[in-house]
């Protein structure tokens, strides 16, 4: 009995499909890891900046830079009220 994948054409098509699937999987995993690392780093930086501003506000010291100068923050960004405002 002849095998289903005995012809050269069917083996080439099967190999091409398998290679595309493997390359797609590698690209997907690599992209996911790179984006995850980038976004985690951005979040860490944002949390550190927010913590620094909160500590300065709690101690009554001016922040090292104004909130408008912080990356990703501009007009319309809501700010937490300071403890003294209450």
Task: Give the structure's gist in a few sentences.
With 86 residues, the chain is an all-alpha fold.
Q: In angstroms, what is the radius of gyration?
A: 27 Å
Structural class: mainly alpha
> What is the terminal-to-terminal distance?
87 Å
Percentage beta strand: under 5%
- The helix-strand sequence is H
Largest sheet geometry = none
Query: Portion of residues in helices?
Result: 55-70%
What is the average of the pLDDT values?
Answer: 80
Give the strand tally. 0
Shape: rod-shaped
Show unreliable segments: none
Helix tally equals 1
What would you note in describing this structure?
The protein is mostly helical. The protein has a domain at 27-63. The chain is built from one helix and no strands. The protein has one helix spanning 8-59. The longest helix has 52 residues, at 8-59.
Write the layout of secondary structure elements.
Layout: H1 8-59
What structural keywords apply?
86 residues; mainly alpha; 60% helix
């Amino acid at each position: 009995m002849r095998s289903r994948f005995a012809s050269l054409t069917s083996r080439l098509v099967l190999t091409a499909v398998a290679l595309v699937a493997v390359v797609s999987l590698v690209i997907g995993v690599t992209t996911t890891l790179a984006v995850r690392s980038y976004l985690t780093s951005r979040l860490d930086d944002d949390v550190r900046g927010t913590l620094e501003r909160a500590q300065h506000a709690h101690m009554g010291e001016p922040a090292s830079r104004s909130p408008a100068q912080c990356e990703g923050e501009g007009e319309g960004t809501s700010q937490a009220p300071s403890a003294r405002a209450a």
